[in-house]
Amino acid sequence: TIGITRQLIGCRWLNAKSFQYAGSIAPAVRELGTGIQDITLTGFRLVSRVGLVGLFGVDFVPNEDRCLTLEVNPRYTASV
Question: Which pTM does this prediction carry?
Fold first, then answer.
């Protein structure tokens, strides 16, 4: 199962400073368009090639019609 959230960073209305995590909004699937295919493929590769199991997080940035992976967090994430 894939859950996608939008990470809130540095939101003044939440009294967050620059680059400070301020929470997450879910679900955020509609904003991605065809980029969801990149996310799904990344998840399958992490499970089948790297052997990750259980809950893990992948941070990414949407870029036009793609989603570019920034980092993999092999643990329970704040947005869960």
Answer: 0.78
